[in-house]
Write a structure and sequence with these properties.
single chain, seven-stranded parallel β-sheet, 9 helices, 9 strands, globular, binds zinc ion
Length: about 250
């Protein structure tokens, strides 16, 4: 039985439910540990992150819940630190390091917005070559621990979010070389990779991040894993964990 979930969003960033609603749902589900990980601010995109002026309130709110529910569930206050966020992370119990953008000259290009924005970025910045976008993404992912000093590597292959629509070929040797380059670098840190079901619960993908081939490669090279829902609402907490738990029990 799965008893924890450490990738949870709330109304402090782009989630639909308050932290306390998330706690109540977690209790209903029988969790004994949970961690909040709202999005750290980035200077160029304010729409989905915690507002800078609310960072203290975020920590205080989670802290209050820690105490209020101390006899029922252990609550952690984390942060999902974007590669391009310059906020410090010392005041959190743990950090998820995630790449949501690729920087090309002075522009920050969202990786996970929509299939249409993906295609537009490919034609505007990558000469129509979707694999170049993927290569630029993994070059950034490769440095995510160096940059964020995270404990957990978030959705390693987020670039594949809309690829059930056939945006690029994941069996292409360029794609494989790109993710292997990032994986080999990150494996050196002995940190934990997520198995993230967020794109399944939101209907974008049938499989979690990372894809099977990547997951097997990471496993064969000794990676540790944690199941993450990346829930943006109460109904997605621990989404599909019961189906995936065998993946992390080795
Ligand atoms: Zn994320
Ligand atoms: Zn997230």
């Amino acid at each position: 039985m799965i008893l924890s979930d450490f990738h949870l969003h709330t109304t402090f960033s782009d989630g639909k439910n308050t932290p306390e609603q998330m706690v109540q749902k977690a209790l209903e589900l029988g969790l004994n540990k949970m961690g909040f990980s709202d999005h750290s601010p980035t200077f160029f995109d304010k729409s989905y992150c915690i507002k800078k002026e609310n960072l203290n309130l975020y920590r205080e709110t989670i802290n209050d819940l820690k105490h209020k529910y101390a006899d029922k569930i252990k609550i952690y206050c984390g942060i999902e630190q974007d590669f391009y966020s310059d906020e410090k992370t010392d005041d959190y119990d743990y950090v998820i390091g995630s790449v949501h953008y690729v920087k090309v000259s002075e522009d920050y290009i969202a990786v996970d917005e929509s299939a249409d924005s993906f295609k537009a970025a490919v034609s505007k910045y990558f000469d129509g070559d979707a694999l170049s976008f993927a290569e630029a993404y993994f070059e950034t992912v490769k440095r995510v621990l160096e940059e964020t000093n995270a404990d957990i590597i978030g959705h390693f292959d987020l670039i594949s979010k809309f690829n059930d629509q056939g945006l690029f070929d994941e069996s292409d040797k360029r794609y494989i070389a790109a993710w292997k380059g990032a994986a080999d670098e990150l494996l050196k840190y002995k940190k934990t990779f997520e198995i993230n079901t967020g794109a399944i619960s939101r209907g974008y993908k049938k499989e979690p991040y990372p894809s099977k081939d990547i997951l097997n490669y990471l496993k064969d090279n000794g990676a540790k894993f944690v199941l993450s829902s990346d829930a943006h609402s109460t109904d997605a907490i621990c989404f599909n964990f019961d189906k995936l738990k065998d993946l992390i029990i080795r």
